Amino acid sequence: MSKILIVEDDRTLCEELSVLLEKAGYTVGKIEVFDNVHLQMKKSDADLILLDINLPGENGEVILQKYRKISDTPIIMLTSSAEDIDEVLSMSYGADDYITKPYNPTILLLRITAVLKRSQKTGQTQMYNDIQVNLASGSISGNGKEQILTKNEMIIFGLLLDNKGEIVSRDEMMTVLWDNDEYLNDNALSVNISRLRTKLSELGIGDAIETRKKQGYLLK
After folding, report:
1. What DSSP string runs through the chain?
2. Which domains does the chain have, with CATH numbers?
3. Could you read off the pLDDT of 35-57 as tens digits, one per residue?
4. Could you read off the pLDDT of 59-81 as tens digits, one per residue?
């Protein structure tokens, strides 16, 4: 049974989420004091976190940035804002998904299931050139350095690695990432590709992913 941590300062919404998740069979935890939230998230030992952006004190995006330095637990961002910038920032900071309020309970549960499914997949260590790729831990290492990838970055890199030398279309990538065409977001994919390239560059292979206009991406 997976544990989900709710980080939401609206008590009514927090309680509604709690009831929804418990009825769906999840164990639920809540954060009610909003100091050092990222450390409380770490101590919760949750399998997935629902993190609101608009919180008292530090906002969710700042908390997400801090948390990604100490943990790769899947996070779905919650917000009442429909601004694209919030989604782009959340994904660039390491969120695994993003949903706006008021949300459809069924869609939220489907997204939670999809994110948990991706996070629970395990894989063997693979090699790409001189880079060691650990799909299970979400890390790539080489030249004496290591980079930790977010779940989405690792899914993208794993897909490219499985199809090395072949073009993987943007549509195929987004389908694998979000499992349902309804949830595709082109900006979020671009952000993830950009971050992945940066991390590969830190290991000395910044030109590994080639963009093929109107076609997709190719891992050389």
Report:
1. --EEEEE-S-HHHHHHHHHHHHHTT-EEEE--S-SSHHHHHHHHT-SEEEEESS-SSS-HHHHHHHHHTT----EEEEES---HHHHHHHHHTT-SEEEESSPPHHHHHHHHHHHHHHHH----EEEETTEEEETTTTEEEETTEEEEPPHHHHHHHHHHHHTTTSEE-HHHHHHHHHSSGGG--HHHHHHHHHHHHHHHHHTT-TTSEEEETTTEEEE-
2. 3-120 (3.40.50.2300), 125-219 (1.10.10.10)
3. 999 999 999 989 999 999 999 98
4. 999 999 999 989 889 999 998 86
